[in-house]
């Protein structure tokens, strides 16, 4: 009998939701950076072992909506929650629950959501630091389990997967058994490049960037040709993205290409253009054409 569990990964920005998803799936399906609001839309990660399929929903972190893009991100979280069998609340090992965790616990309570508290980044603290955190979270909500893990090193992740497999309801699988994600290779190509800007550019520049895959084609010799356009909000940003003598763009492109080659197991030839489109984050037409 097949079992399928749909699991919402919730938590404030930067708690490691996307890192955990990638760790579980074993591939880069969600981009990761130290900056909040890296994840813009809902991303599905899938792992299937034997008869049990776990479907994870990585969501943008919950935060105050300041633009139409942010509005859509909050709506994405709410839509995902409705279809989940269980939720993971990811949190920091050395911080007590604050307003974002309290809001999420409220939502779980209202929905009668079964939840596991995942205290991530256990690699970064002494064990004794975890005790008050665990005590505070057990008072916050009636979690079925509270488990410290490290998404970065993988510590505790197998135990977490076992907890989820044990709770997966009997249901037909939703994805093929070898599927890892609902993200297309085209989307991942653009996301890998955006990830590089998030990691290496400062302040407001990376959050004003959208990357679009214009062309994604496999040549007869197996090489994959990818054309990407980077949209930014200001002419000055364009200069920063390209860098002096094009060095920033070149380095970002090389890293993104390497990650894409690893994903696809093929050689990639990448071309990148940079264009200025003012205020795209508040323009419905542009948001739709960028796929939000
Ligand atoms: N030390 C440590 N850092 C982590 C761990 N998991 C994630 N991070 C880092 O935390 C930052 C945010 O991670 P990300 O997955 O993008 O968080 P998200 O915003 O919740 O999706 C990144 O710099 C990660 O490398 C972990 O287990 N240990
Ligand atoms: Mg994320």
What would you say this structure looks like, in words?
The protein is of the alpha/beta class. Helices cover 38% and strands 22% of the residues. Strands 2-3-1-4-5-6 form a 6-stranded mixed β-sheet, sandwiched between helices. The chain has a 3-stranded mixed β-sheet with strand order 7-8-9. The mean pLDDT is 90. The structure holds guanosine-5'-diphosphate and magnesium ion (MG). Residues 17-18, 30, 38-39, 58 line the site of magnesium ion.
What does this entry show, briefly?
This protein has about 290 residues and is of the alpha/beta class. Helix content is about 40%, strand content about 20%. The radius of gyration is 20 Å and the shape is globular.
Name its key features.
single chain, 292 residues, alpha/beta, Rossmann fold, GMP Synthetase, Chain A, domain 3, 2 domains, 3-stranded mixed beta sheet, 9 helices, 9 strands, binds magnesium ion
């Amino acid at each position: 009998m097949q079992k399928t569990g749909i699991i919402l990964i919730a938590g404030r920005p930067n708690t490691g939701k996307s890192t955990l998803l990638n760790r579980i799936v074993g591939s880069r399906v969600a981009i990761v950076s130290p900056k909040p609001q890296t994840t813009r839309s809902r991303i599905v990660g899938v792992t299937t072992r034997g008869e049990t399929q776990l479907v994870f929903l990585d969501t943008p972190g919950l935060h105050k909506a300041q633009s139409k893009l942010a509005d859509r991100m909050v709506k994405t979280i709410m839509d995902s929650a409705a279809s989940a069998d269980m939720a993971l609340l990811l949190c920091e090992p050395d911080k007590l629950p604050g307003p974002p965790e309290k809001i999420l616990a409220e939502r779980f309570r209202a929905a009668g959501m079964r939840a596991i508290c995942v205290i991530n980044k256990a690699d970064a603290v002494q064990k004794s630091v975890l005790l008050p955190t665990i005590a505070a979270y057990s008072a916050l909500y009636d979690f079925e389990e509270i488990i410290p893990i490290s998404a970065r090193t993988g510590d505790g992740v197998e135990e977490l997967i076992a907890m989820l497999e044990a709770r997966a309801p009997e249901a037909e699988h939703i994805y093929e058994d070898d599927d890892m994600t609902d993200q297309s290779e085209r989307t991942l190509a653009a996301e890998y490049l955006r990830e590089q800007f998030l990691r290496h550019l400062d302040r407001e520049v990376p959050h004003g960037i959208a990357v679009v895959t214009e062309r994604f084609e496999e040549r007869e010799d197996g090489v994959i040709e990818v054309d990407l356009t980077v949209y930014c909000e200001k002419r000055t940003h364009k200069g920063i993205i390209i860098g002096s003598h094009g060095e920033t763009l070149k380095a970002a492109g090389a890293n993104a290409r390497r990650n894409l080659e690893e994903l696809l197991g093929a050689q990639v030839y990448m071309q990148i253009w940079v264009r200025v489109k003012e205020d795209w984050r508040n323009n419905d037409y542009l948001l739709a054409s960028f796929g939000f």
